[in-house]
Write a structure and sequence with these properties.
By secondary structure, the protein is an alpha/beta fold. Helices cover 14% and strands 31% of the residues. It contains four helices and 34 strands. The N and C termini lie far apart (65 Å).
């Protein structure tokens, strides 16, 4: 999430009521999660396991709950609760705005695009030309839809990320301030859910086709010309490269990469990153030829034992 203007480190520290390490006029341009940070961004970290990763990331401001040596060329914001303070930034710079109409006045709808009855189009949504948005589709604020896109009934774009921190009193939600980007020539089936990014974007690239009842998690990027079959669940922060096929009821772990032109057979669990150009099957996942040999070997062993 980029801020509407350049802020100083001192201004952000005052907003959060925290101490800072670095020049008062150190530039701050936005805030993002660690996998999408850029120069000028704030990243938050609240666990020792990830201190080094945050301090060595592309972020130039680190919101952290411990006094540490500040890396050269960076600045620190010292917070008792970075998670809560990151939420403060999201609320301040991208606060929720209630809808006043089924299609917001600020929405931009392209030429020859059809919006069927009972669809909801939120604030600042942009929809390109020659699209078809069927009934009961909900497109949350700030989503961007390209040209020649079809979205079937009941699908939801832009719901919050499934991202929580466990507290003694229960679960604390990380506020989502990102969005969803759908590029040209994408088809989205009925009853699909595509969550927005926490601070960046969830993206479906051009030419990809998504079947009914598919879940795409926050900050995930689906490449060009992918096929995703029914009841597949792709977790958050996953990279699906171009021309990947995921058959029915595939599930993935978060933070993995599925290589270009990989094929994952139905009901497989993608528990780790996999290379492109191969066919995979099973849980934990393996190349299908290896997994099927293993299953055949186990079957033969059982027959032998029965004798």
């Amino acid at each position: 999430m980029k801020f509407p203007r350049k802020y100083s480190l001192a201004e952000i520290a005052e907003l959060l009521n925290v101490k800072f390490v670095g020049p008062e006029d150190f530039p701050v341009l936005g805030c993002n999660e660690i996998h999408v940070v850029e120069e000028g961004d704030i990243v938050f970290v609240d666990h020792p396991k990830y201190y080094d990763k945050a301090l060595e990331s592309k972020a130039t401001v680190v919101l952290i709950n411990k006094k540490v040596k500040c890396p050269v060329g960076k600045a620190l914001l010292i917070s008792e609760d970075p998670f809560t303070d990151f939420n403060k930034l999201s609320k301040h710079f991208n606060s929720f705005k209630k809808a006043t109409a089924a299609i917001a006045d600020s929405a931009v709808i392209g030429k020859n695009t059809v919006i069927q009855p009972n669809a909801f189009i939120g604030n600042n949504v942009v929809i390109g030309d020659n699209c078809l948005i069927h009934s009961n589709v909900s497109i949350y604020d700030n989503c961007k839809i390209g040209n020649n896109v079809t979205i079937h009934a009941g699908s939801i774009l832009g719901a919050d990320a499934f991202y929580y921190k466990k507290r003694p009193e229960g679960y604390d939600k990380l506020i989502s301030s990102g969005s969803v980007i759908i590029e040209d020539n994408v088809d989205i089936g009925a009853l699909c859910t595509i969550d927005r990014g926490v601070s960046g974007n969830t993206t479906i690239k051009k030419g990809s086709k998504i079947d009914n009842q598919v879940q795409i998690g926050h900050d995930t990027v689906i490449g060009e010309n992918c096929l995703i079959a029914s009841q597949t669940g792709v977790a958050g922060c996953v990279i699906v490269e171009d021309e990947v096929t995921l058959w029915g009821q595939v599930g993935t772990n978060s933070g993995i990469t599925i290589g270009k032109k990989a094929v994952v057979l139905g009901q497989s669990g993608v528990t780790k990153s996999i290379s492109g150009g191969k066919t995979y099957f099973g849980t934990p996942i393996e190349e299908s030829r290896i997994k099927l040999k293993e299953l055949a070997g186990i079957k033969q062993l059982l027959k032998t034992q029965k004798k």
